[in-house]
Each structure stands twice: as structure tokens, then as C-alpha cells.
Amino acid sequence: MKRKSIILLCTASMLTLLLFASCARQPEKATKTSFMMDTVMELTAYGDNAQKAVDAAIDAIKKIDKLMSVSSQDGDVYRINAAAGQSPVKISKETMYVIQAAQHYSQLSNGLFDITIGPLVNLWGIGTKNEIPTQADINKAKALVDYRKFKVNTEAGTAELPENGMAIDLGAIAKGYAADVAKEVLVRYGIKSAVINLGGNVVVIGNKTDGSLWRVGIQNPFEPNGDYVAVVEEADKAVVTSGIYERYFIKDGKRYHHILNPFTGYPADNGLASVSIISDKSIDADALSTLVFLLGPEKGMELVEDLSNIECIMITTDKEILLSDGLKGKVKIVDKGFEYEER
Amino acid sequence: MKKGDKLLIIVLAAALIAGYGTIYYRDHFSQTRATGAIIKVDGKVYKTISSSQMQSDATFTIDIPTGGYNVVDINGGRIRVKAADCRDKICVNTGWISKPGETIVCLPHRLIIQITGQAQDIDSLSY
User: Fold this and answer.
1) Co-location of A89 and A237 in the same domain
2) Which of A78, A203, A258, B26 is deepest in the core (most CB within 10 A)?
3) What's the domain range around A133?
4) Contact state of B125 with A216 under an 8 Å Cβ cutoff
5) CATH of the domain at A184
6) Nearest residue on chain B to A221, alpha-carbon basis
7) Percentage, residues of chain A above pLDDT 70
8) B102 interfacial to chain A (CB closer than 8 Å)
9) What ipTM does the predicted assembly reach?
10) A128 contacts on B by Cβ (under 8 Å)
């Protein structure tokens, strides 16, 4: 009898252990939402130290926000703009890295993407003002935009805007950089599975905890945030979208959005509603989503096909979906209201 | 077998069934199918709206701790920000939302309204 009891107890405790084991199989998950860089950020990480890792990543983004926001007075960008026409400004390594990346894309596009777009951005004030500026003011602002005049001295670690009124704006690239840094921080904490979403700039780390690919939705440009037209399945990639629906105003039936063309001085008007770029690094995807948008459907797609490890999803204002060659067959179009032809 | 043994088996069996049952329920059934909404201010839950509350008409004002307000309207399963004193009015311009995953964001007020319910088919959204 006694032996039976012992066997019973052993079986029972083993079963109980099994129960707890099945609970413990779920890895630690940490999610944090934060408002920074003029947008909503959400970080989700799985695995040991997930909470610590997410907290550290948010702290790192905070620092970048301070350095690169046009409005934080101790930041590098603010100081560069405040010293325009006066003197060079000593800047951090981080800002130097982002400025150089922005200059690279400015050169690549002969100024269609221009880091010194600040005067036009401020003039339009899309999101705060709802008025079309006068042509005279647009011309004045346009004349101040020229990345070739922006002097960057990597050895001295300084940057200088030579003319009064000039201003740089890292709005089209800083979030992308911040997502790369957030990824670095999470990986340093040993995280192997995570999703970083900085206001629509998505970076996925590794695979999902069940080993499958992450599913990233592509926003429907014509519906509220949360409606998606297509799904991309990826691991270890960045997906960044630029569109006409984020910041805009409508005047006399015409939409004026925040993607400004420095050559015309007006928002890009080329038949595109959104451009999503998929790449290894988020900083590239961020800059390219703006640049490819400005280039328009044909030239934009040509550039994407010329670059290695860069893929693209375009949605036109006629609700047509265009994919770069590398994505064909890899993207699921889930909204029947959009036209897609396999070419 | 003694009486105590039997009791032990019954208790343990009951505990096990209850335990597994909870996990099974959590994994398979607890995702509600109905659509409600969740309102968050600065990352904290301000109010959850059940699917039945979503069906009735209601209007209320959210006072933002850092200053300002958003007037929220609920009507027949839809929700919107009817008015706000934020600088960009993006929340108001978004209009009605009703499908799971659809979101209204008021960045200046750090306000998020999201339709909840059926689990979404994506892990993240690029916008």
C-alpha cells in the first residue's frame, strides 16, 4: 500500500510539473508604447530580458530624438540650424552618421532627396498650417535648399550651413536610423525575436517565436490607419512606407501632403499614393521610401531595381499595386479593391 | 487503496484538468469575436468600450492631463473623434473607424483609439 502511494505521488507530481512546463514554454514577452519623434512607437520583444531590452531600446531612441529633432534646443540639428550663416557646429558621432547617409541619398538623387529641405518644410508646415504658401515665399524657400552647400567635416566632426535661413531636416531618415539602433540594443540583450514599429517604420528581428515569418501589413492609403492592402512575410528586415495620407490638408478639393519636392517647392504629385521599401537596414528603407516616392512610379522602380537587396511596393492613386521583381509571388494582396497585374 | 489515496488522486486530477482547461481556453477561445474599442492616453488605458457599448450611442469628452480635450462619438458600432483642440486635427479628420485594427491617433494629445476584437492577421503595420 505504501509503495502504491509513493508511485501515485510521483506520477501526480510529474503530471503537475508537466503542467507548469507547458506554461513556461511561452517565452517572456514585453511590449512598450511610447510617443517620440512626433509619432507613436511600439516595441515588442520575446525571450529572457525582454522587458529590460525594450526599456533600453526606448532610452536609446529618446537620445536620438533629442539629437536629431528640429525642435530640441540642445540637439545637434537644432544647433546646426540656429548657427546657419554663422559658424560650424560640433556634432555627435550618431548625428554625423545620419547626416552622411542623408548626404549620400542627396547625391544619389542629385538633390531630389535633399537634407537641406528645412526651409520648405517649415514654410508649408504640413500638419500644423492648412494654407498654401504664396509662390513668392515658395521661391524664396526653394532658393535656400541645396545640399551641395551644406559643409560636413568628418575629421573635425562639424557641420555648417553657410547661409542664413538654411536648415536641415532629418525627418525622412532619423526614424529609420532610430529603428536600426533599437534593433542593435535588443540584439545586444540577446533578443532573437522582436518587432519594432516606429510610427510605421517596421523592423522585424529574427522569426516569430513559433519559427514562422513575421507578417507585416501595408497600409491602405485610402482608409483609416489599420486597414492594410497587402501582407509581406519577412524575417530580419525593415519595411518603411511613405504616403500621402499621414500628414496633409485638403484645399479646394486638392490634397497637399508632407512629401515635398525641392525642385517644384510643392508636394509630390505623380500618381503615387504610397511607397513601401523593404531592405536590410531601416535607415536605407526610410530614406528610399521618400526618394522613390519623389521619383515617381517609373523612375522610382528603375532605381529600386538598380540597387541590391532593396525591394519596393508602390500603390498608385488609381489603386494599382506595383511590385519590384524580387517581390513577385512573395506579397499577398488581401484587398480586392486594388488592381495588381503579374508582369 | 486507502481513502486518502483516492482523495489525493481526485484532487490532483481536478487540479490538472482545471489547469489544462485554463490554458486551452486561453489559447483557443479567449479571443473575443465581437468588436469593441480601447482608448489609451499616454500609453495608459483610459477606457475600454465593450461590443454592446459600441452599439449604443454615446458622446463623451476626454480631458487630456497635459491640457486639451478630445470629444469622442460612438454610434452603431463605429467610433470617431468628433472634435478636438489639438493643433493638427488628424484625429478628427480620420473620421469613423469600425473594423478590428483600425486606429485613430491624436499625437499632440498622445491619444490612441483602436478597434479591438478578432485577432488581426498581421504582426505589425507599415504606414
Assistant:
1) no
2) A203
3) 71-160
4) yes
5) 3.10.520.10
6) B127
7) 92
8) yes
9) 0.89
10) 87-88
Residues A154 and A294 in one domain: no
Does the residue A342 lie in any domain? no
Q: What mean pLDDT is predicted for residues A278-303? A: 98
Q: Please report the pLDDT score of residue B32 as a whole number.
A: 41
Classify residue A249: in a domain, yes or no.
yes
| Residues of chain B positioned with their CB less than 8 A from the CB of A216 | 122-126
Residue A270 pLDDT greater than 70, yes or no: yes
Q: Write the single-letter amino acid at A220.
A: N
Among candidate residues A130, A160, A190, the one where a domain is terminated: A160
pLDDT for B64 equals 95
CB contact under 8 A, B12 and A23: no
Nearest Cα to Cα of residue A313 among A274, A255, A256: A274
For A41, nearest residue in chain B (alpha carbons): B43
Distance CA(A284)–CA(A278), nearest Å, equals 9
A308: left (phi over 0), alpha (psi -120 to 50) or beta: beta
Q: What is the pLDDT of residue A329?
A: 83
How much is the average pLDDT of A246-275?
A: 94
pLDDT > 70? residue B1:
no
Residue A252 and residue A142 share a domain: no
Residue A135: CATH number of its domain = 1.10.3980.10
Query: For a pLDDT cut of 90, what percent of chain A falls above it?
Result: 86
Q: Per the structure block, which three cell numbers stand in for A111? A: 538633390
The C-alpha of A158 sits at a distance from chain B's nearest C-alpha, in angstroms, of 33
CA distance A64 to A73: 13
Q: How confident is the model at residue B19 (pLDDT cuts 50, 70, 90)?
A: confident
Cα angle: A8, vertex A9, A12; to 5 degrees: 85
Query: What is the residue-averaged pLDDT of chain A?
Result: 93
Q: Which residues pair with A340 in a beta bridge?
A: none
Of A19, A225, A276, the CB nearest to B105: A225
**A266 and A185 within one domain:** yes
Domain count, chain A: 2
Which of A160, A187, A207 is where one domain is finished? A160
Tell me the pLDDT tens digit for each residue of B32-83.
446 899 999 998 999 999 999 999 999 999 999 999 999 999 999 999 999 9
pLDDT at B103 over 80: yes
A179 shares its domain with A285: yes
Cβ atoms of A170 and A179 within 8 Å: the answer is: no
* B118–chain A Cβ distance below 8 A for any pair: no
CATH number of B32-119: 2.60.320.10
- Would you state the cell numbers that stand for residue B15, as one nine-digit string? 487540479
How crowded is residue A11: how many other Cβ atoms within 10 Å of its Cβ?
12
Give me A185's grid cell.
Answer: 540594443
Q: How far apart are CA B61 and CA A265, in angstroms?
A: 40
Say whether both A104 and A224 belong to one domain.
no
Q: Are residues A207 and A328 in the same domain?
A: yes
Task: Say if A214 is an interface residue toward chain B (CB within 8 Å).
Answer: yes
